[in-house]
Amino acid sequence: MKAERAERVPAGERTERTERTERTERTERTERTERAERPGRPAPSQAPGGDTRRRVLLIEDDTDIAEAIGYQMEKAGLQVRVARTGEEGLEAVRKGVDLVLLDLNLPGMDGLEVCRMIRRQQTTAHLPIIIVSARADEVDRVLGLEMGADDYVVKPFSLKELAARAKVALRRDASSGEPLQGYRDENWEIEFDAYVVRYKGQEIRLTHKEFELFRYMVERAGRVLTRERLLERVWGWESDIDSRSIDAHIRRLRIKLGDARHHVETVVGLGYRFVK
């Protein structure tokens, strides 16, 4: 009887009902799909393929800290990917990033070892690294910088300040894409190839090693350089040079710089830096 009643429904009415049913089902499927694909907060690593933002890799195992840092970096216009372990972080670095924010207390591979591994690879040796750690002792900060970190931020910290430091590191990295031929500002005129240094128009004569030491600091203006790093990059760990002898070389360099000596600044317990 049911079949007979269905047959007596006009064909046009049956077609209209069928179309309404199909539209309803399509709408419900679409809503279910959208709900399934709608995360609480978009994961930075799922950014569209055409995303042109600078890529920040955050290696941090604490979920709350990672979420807070990631949110602040996104607000600053950066794309963030989070790795929970050192091994996962190294794999992400190999795929390509522009900056690494690195915790030291990681499960498995220690953060210092991750930093060392990044610096050992030719393709990532110049990748900016900012250590973000609860280890606040001077020895930890020095060790982190010696391992090749460009900056060291102690927890707890200001999220806005960390984002600012990240952007500074990215700008510095972008400007160092090609070797500098020299340095000039309102006071300095330095020609790297000609080994010429002038301060306010007056030439300063330096020995070869003094110039290389000064040049290395100028090329990394504002960055703290440990004695060990200066020794390795300028002298190449010569057997007759001790890291503490860097202090004597800096002292002689400052004497020759004269009125410009304040541009070579001591960072107590860490090392030295050139300030503009």
Question: Can you walk me through this structure?
Answer:
- The protein is α/β, with parallel strands linked by helices and 276 residues long.
- The chain has two domains: 44-175, Rossmann fold, CATH 3.40.50; 182-274, Arc Repressor Mutant, subunit A.
- The chain contains ten helices and eleven strands.
- A five-stranded parallel sheet has the order 2-1-3-4-5, with helices on both faces. It has a four-stranded antiparallel sheet with strand order 6-7-8-9, with helices on one face. The chain has a two-stranded antiparallel ribbon with strand order 10-11.
- Helix 6 (138-146) links the parallel strand 4 and strand 5.
- Helix 3 (63-75) crosses helix 7 (159-175).
- The protein starts with a helix and ends with a strand.
Core attributes:
276 residues, alpha/beta, Rossmann fold, Arc Repressor Mutant, subunit A, 5-stranded parallel β-sheet, 4-stranded antiparallel β-sheet, 46% helix
Helical content band: 40-55%
Order of helices and strands: HHEHEHEHEHEHEEEEHHHEE
Which segments are poorly predicted (pLDDT under 50) over 5 or more consecutive residues? Answer: 1-11, 30-49
Structural class: alpha/beta
How many strand units? 11
Q: Please state the CA-atom Rg, rounded to the nearest Å.
A: 29 Å
Q: Indicate how many domains the architecture comprises.
A: 2
Give the averaged pLDDT, no decimals. 81
Helical run tally: 10
User: Strands of the biggest beta sheet: in what spatial order?
Assistant: 2-1-3-4-5
| The level-1 CATH class of the largest domain | Alpha Beta
**CA distance, first residue to last residue:** 95 Å
Sheet with the most strands, sense and barrel status: 5 strands, parallel
Second CATH tier, the architecture of the largest domain: 3-Layer(aba) Sandwich
Percent of residues in β-strands: 15-25%
Shape: elongated
Query: Which fold name corresponds to the CATH topology of the largest domain?
Result: Rossmann fold
> What would CATH call the homologous superfamily of the largest domain?
Response regulator
